[in-house]
Amino acid sequence: MSSVTKNPSVAVIDIGSNSIKVLIAARAVTGQLRSVKARTLDARISAGISSDKPTLSEDGMTRGLGAVRELLSEASEYGPKKTILVATSAVRDATNGATFRQRVKAATKQDIRVLTGEEEANYIGRGLTCDPELEELQDFYVFDLGGGSLECLAFKKRKITQAVSLQLGCVRLTEKFFKNPAAPLTVEETTTLAKHVRDELKKSGFKFALTAPAAVFTGGSMSTVRAIKGARHQMRMEDTPAIIGTDTLGEMLDELGPLTLEQRKALPGMPAARADVFPAAVITMVTLADYAHVDRFHHSLYNLRWGIAAETLDTL
After folding, report:
1. Of the candidates 81, 92, 278, 310, which lies 20 to 30 Å from 171 by C-alpha distance?
2. 245: pLDDT strictly greater than 90
3. Residues 136, 92: one domain?
4. Is a pLDDT exceeding 70 seen at residue 89?
5. Model's pTM, two decimal places?
6. pLDDT at 47
7. Which of 87, 118, 149 is the last residue of a domain?
8. Are 285 and 247 in contact (CB under 8 A)?
9. CB of 120 within 8 A of CB of 296?
10. Strand-pair category, 112-114 with 82-87
11. Helical residues (DSSP H) of the chain, grouped into ranges
12. How far is CA 78 from the centre of its chain?
């Protein structure tokens, strides 16, 4: 760690639909990007994101501001050379997103950069190239599932050839397709949601044309899959295998189907704040795997924040 902390660091705060995260990163003496500190707070600022004119609620903005202030305070202890705040789908799509940005600015003196869907996808792609476990991959897909959107990318010879952002986030889909998220899943809701995911993938124009590609997945939903699997073996999420077979996702969906929200929350490893939207996330992952004809995902923790940190450090 000393080889990292001697070099300048940057702090990136990612204001997402379901959670707000900080990454403090620096270059090691080898040039590799390393994490100095990372933390996630569940804030769910995106309630109502599925409506025609989504609006951030007062409670959501209050939770979001509180999380941003807490993470900024923690980050300041590490003396980052630069601190960047970015927002994605929830703030991007909200009719009052500017109001939230103004409140954060007034309270923290920090500006929030709202990323376009294309910028979000491309930063995720850049972040993935920082993952040492993916160094050998040449042609591969990347999928990042958040609360508001799903980003899909294709890499050929480690260069991005396609990038789209789709409104298929798990908070958005839960609100749109589940009448009662606290109840067990119904066959009709599951089928309708899966059809919607397939239809949106088809309409997106994203071409699944790579030959025998790997598929990389990022985001909190796959972290939750690994956390639940790990808890059954008294393992930390980070110590579980990063390769998740689609058969595992199918089995998890079968297990979730009959459970109420309270029963889901009681599953070892399940973050209580994600239990209501997790079924929609798993349905989306299973449907995506089937549509893309992949039988496994490589889960990576190197996503949006890593891409922004890499770019920022290159400019210091």
Report:
1. 310
2. yes
3. no
4. yes
5. 0.90
6. 72
7. 118
8. no
9. no
10. parallel
11. 2-5, 58-76, 89-93, 97-108, 117-128, 170-177, 187-204, 220-231, 246-256, 261-265, 278-292, 304-315
12. 24
Give the amino acid at 174.
T
Distance between CA 282 and CA 236 in Å, rounded? 20
Residues in the chain: 316
Could you tell me the CA-to-CA distances from 77 to 23, 72, 74, 261 in Å, in that order?
Answer: 13, 9, 6, 38
Which tokens sit at 126? 């850049």
Range of the domain at 37: 2-118
Name 166's bridge partners: 150
For 193-227, the pLDDT digits (tens) are: 999 999 999 999 999 988 877 999 999 999 999 99
> What 3-state class would DSSP assign to 130?
coil
In which region does residue 13 sit, left (phi positive, over 0), alpha (psi from -120 to 50) or beta (all else)?
beta
The alpha carbon dihedral of 177, 220, 66, 104 has a sign of: negative
Q: In the predicted model, what is the mean pLDDT of residues 236-263?
A: 96
Average pLDDT, the chain: 94
Section 158-167 average pLDDT = 94
Copy the structure tokens of residue 264: 């889901």
Place of tokens 């990022």: 218
CB atoms within 10 A of CB 82: 14
Boundary-marking domain end, from 118, 145, 171: 118
Joined tokens for residue 135: 């160094």
